[in-house]
Specification:
The protein is mainly beta. It is built from no helices and 11 strands. Strands 2, 4, 5, 6, 9, 10 and 11 form a 7-stranded mixed β-sheet that branches. Strand 7 and strand 8 form a beta hairpin. The radius of gyration is 13 Å and the shape is globular.
């Protein structure tokens, strides 16, 4: 079993950058493909980005293409989400998730963190 903990959220102005981290304990992070999801107030949780076990395959949602980058450092058991040019509509709780295989489907995630709040003011 793996425990996931997100960090790096906060309150920023539109146009700013943030880097979220997802640290894993319990098992080696390289065992899993990893994803970021987010849930805005009053909305369903949605896919943001995914990365394969080795980091050679990545995918991001159309809404964040060109602004968000997913990466991982398996030696540090940590995954990252670099968020640039943030917009008010990026305001959400961001969750990291682990899966046994590379995919972007929420229902196929095996482990979840508790989330970190990102608030972008206009």
């Amino acid at each position: 079993q793996v425990q996931l903990v997100e960090s790096g959220g906060g309150l920023v102005q539109a146009g700013a950058s943030l880097r979220l981290s997802c640290s894993a304990s319990g098992r080696t992070l390289s065992t899993y493909a990893m994803d970021w999801f987010r849930q805005a107030p009053g909305k369903e949780r949605e896919f943001v980005a995914a990365i394969s076990r080795t980091g050679d395959i990545t995918s991001v949602a159309d809404s964040v293409t060109g602004r968000f980058t997913i990466s991982r450092d398996n030696a540090k058991n940590t995954m990252y989400l670099q968020m640039n040019s943030l917009k008010p509509e990026d305001t959400a709780v961001y969750y990291c998730a682990a899966s046994d295989y590379y995919n972007i489907v929420e229902a196929h995630m095996t482990y979840w963190g508790k989330g970190t709040l990102v608030t972008v003011s206009s």
